[in-house]
Amino acid sequence: MKIASALLENWLRDYYFTNEIDISSSGVEDFSMVELRQLIGLQQEEFDQLIFHDSPSLGSLGLRKAIAQRWGKGDISRVMATNGSSEAIFLVMNALLKPGDEVIVLEPTYHSLVHIAESIGCQIKYWQLKFEQQFAPDFEELKSLITQNTRMIIVNFPHNPTGVSVSLEQQTELINFAAGVGAYLAWDEAFLELTYDRPPLPEVSLLYDKAISFGTLSKAYGLPGLRVGWCFAPPDVLEDCIHLRDYISLALSPLVELVAQRAIENADCLLNIRQKQAYTNREILAEWVETNRDFVEWVKPQGGVTAFLRFRDISDIEDFCHHLINPHGVLLLPGTCFHHPHHVRLGFGGSTAKLKVGLSRLSQMLSVYHSNTQLIHI
Fold first, then answer.
1. What's the rounded Cα separation, in Å, for the pair 194 and 276?
2. Domain range for residue 164?
3. Can you give the C-alpha Rg of the chain in angstroms?
4. Where is coiled-coil annotated (predicted)?
5. Is residue 29 within 8 Å of 281, Cβ to Cβ?
6. Number of domains making up the chain
7. What is the band of 368 on the pLDDT scale with cuts at 50, 70, 90?
8. Residue 302: phi, psi to the nearest 5?
């Protein structure tokens, strides 16, 4: 089966590199090489000593050790470093799923988490997060979706795009549901450590032998252009991933692995800076929503740096976002990229100054839009 078009990427492909103010993105503000070297103590000598040999299929030993020590209690046998978490997701889905498998996926969700399984020919069941319920996961609904044929349950908490998460007790409940039918639990942990109202959840692969987690330096650590991700998975699953990888990317670049290893070894330094910025920006956004409550509704994010706002009385959300980018220069992601035509994804992880400018321009356009709508009705 042909894989579906990635609506989110199609939108960003047109506007991501040409906007003036980006308030759409799902990651924190990017670090420069100068900032990174200063923060993590990366020395020129380390680059000079690097030899451009091929890297092992699972990633360099140093990088895998760094990942395992930070999140996996040191067990490198369950670690694979990948070209972004997107590669890890693609490899794992293709290694474990086959046509006809029953797969439960959160909705809305990132396209890779559903379209890859869909393209394999899996039977997809959607676990809906509903605005009317404050996007709170309904575990009774999940229970009704699970059968003895469920092969995999796919979640991403803290959630992109809504920003909701689950409690420690709910994480345990998810694991118990999966274990009850022997299903794999695939968990996108892109924002595992970037939370606001409660401590981060435990690494799920340490709690259940059929749990697989995906991580990345792109979202919470400000290094999306490095293109480094990873997964924690049982060794036999990683072995199957290697066979697929032999036909795709083979391995990572040793240059990228060096930088990634050192970044992960000093991840707290990167995370603390961007988490403080995210706290500040979330409060700025909260004040903006309150000021514009006649036009906007939301659920305040519990983690990550995205909010899934619902705009009142906007009939064509894509047209609105097109006009916001041209001529106003502000990039906002229409909810149609997640099959929610009355919502937008607003990213608040970037520059605080640019967020303020972007929100100001958005306010102006909302005011004009609603004024024009009222005139039409008159």
1. 10
2. 44-267
3. 21
4. none
5. no
6. 2
7. confident
8. -95, -15
